[in-house]
Amino acid sequence: MPNSGPNTITNKKILAVEGIDEKNFFDKLLKYWGISDFQIEDIGGKDKFPKRFPALLKTTGFFAPDETPFVTHLAIVRDKDEDEAFTSISNIVANAGLEPPTKQSTFSKGNPKVGIFIMPGETVDGTMLEDLCLKTVENSPAMKCVNDFSSCVSELKATPKNIPKAKVQVFKAQVFLAAQTETVDSVGLCAQKGYWDFESPALEELKQFLSHLK
User: Are residues 83 and 156 in the same domain?
Assistant: First the structure.
């Protein structure tokens, strides 16, 4: 979603994600799973949710002329990053006048039904989309190159010792992308090229969540 918000809502099922990279990832993933009846809106970053989520609800088409919701399902996906991610998004949803789910990876019974998925899910270790993507290719021959290179870099004397784990995962993802036939520079474009394994069991929790958009 650009800074000014989407021009109009044209679909009853909306997926709100952090940014363009996530939008590219989910566009390919949903279509791969045969889910085509949806509209993806990128919020512009997790810090923009408090302002731009309410703006999304005010977008032309979200509500019908009689002020009942045109949208029936609103799925929200955000990186964990910190332990209170689900609570943060739930509060934003409630403050906007909608009913949040009682727990992550589920949908509420409100109108519209609101679902929240915190990446990488409860069944995969990590704090972000990159963790889930790397999990899908953990048995790929390219991952040996990734792990070997990561280990080598970590032993350099000039390497900072306090690099957050999240940055390490981003680094590993970039190394994996560099090892592909056609190099791309983001996990979303990697998804568009089919480099992540969309058949991986690691995606089952996410698949169950997104099945509500069918």
Answer: no
Which of 22-31, 43-52, 137-146 shows the lowest mean pLDDT across its residues?
A: 137-146
For residue 64, is it within any domain?
Answer: yes
Residue for token digits 């999990």? 135
| Bond into 141 cis (ω within 30) | no
Q: Which tens digit of pLDDT belongs to each residue from 169-191?
A: 777 787 887 777 777 778 898 89
pLDDT digits (tens, 9 = 90+) for 99-111: 999 999 999 999 9
- Nearest C-alpha neighbor of 81 from the set 45, 108, 52, 51: 45
The answer to the question of residue 3 being in a domain is no
Count the Cβ atoms, other than its own, within 10 Å of residue 3.
8
Residue 103 and residue 209 in one domain: yes
- Judge whether 5 lies within some domain: no
**How many domains would you assign to the chain?**
2
Query: What's the CA gap between 21 and 184, in Å, rounded?
Result: 12
- For strands 106-107 and 73-79, give the pairing: unpaired
Together in a domain, 44 and 98: yes
Alpha-carbon distance 143 to 145, whole Å?
Answer: 5
Token pair of 142 as six digits: 């390219």
pTM for this predicted structure = 0.87
- Residue 104: HSE in the Cβ half-sphere, 13 Å Cα cutoff: 22
CA-to-CA distance for 184 and 14, rounded, in angstroms? Answer: 27
